[in-house]
Specification:
The chain has about 240 residues and is an alpha/beta fold. It is about 30% helix and about 20% strand. The strands form three sheets. The protein has a six-stranded mixed sheet, with helices on both faces. Strands 2-3 form a two-stranded antiparallel ribbon. The two termini are about 35 Å apart.
Length: about 240
Amino acid sequence: MIDNKTILIVVPARGGSKGIKLKNLQKIGGVSLVAKVGHIVNEISIVDRAIVSTDHKKIAEAARKSGLIVPFFRPIKLSGDRISDLEVLTQALLEIEKIDNIQYDIIVMLQPTSPSRTSDQVINTINKLLTTNADSVWTVSCTDSKAHPLKQLVIKNEEIHYYDKAGAKIIARQELTTTYHKNGIAYAMTRDCIINQKSIKGEKCIPLLINEPVVNIDTEFDLAFANFLNHYNRRKKKLIGYK
């Protein structure tokens, strides 16, 4: 709790991932993705509850060993790959509120597939929501100009076209407005945002910019890069420690 606001962390971790089988149990530096979230949560004292929404027994077991709570299993109807984050968060929030007999003020979603997060980043996300009148705070990263929407192409009838016709007018990257993308490090939302506005974004969503490298794991390559980045960061910290 902080500023008399109760804080709930929800970790969505279903078992039916398609790109990588049991993705949430894949390991970075010898630690499963779901367990890495547990280790981060253990460093955040302001959190009142941290639960995992899963439909898989092995994920639940790994989560519990890391200090997370699995008070219930996700219903089968919410286990498909076409289920929204809002549906999962709403079910988890209402279910744990029944169990705990309280209402949580702030809900934070931590997806295991962004394993490069730090506890400070999560705390900063929560604090930014508490100190503004926003409905939600999302962590974002700058998008490389090579992936800018105006530089994207589509192929139709074996011919290349600009995704946006305005892209044909772009000569230099300096003409491009900076764009950003969700990086999955943390999403913080008010209860009103989820329950009454029925959204994880709400009417007013503000950003927390993350400048450090971020990995979102969808493919085997992402997993390999996440392991490389984990090794790099650990080596960097070790070298700094010797100064």
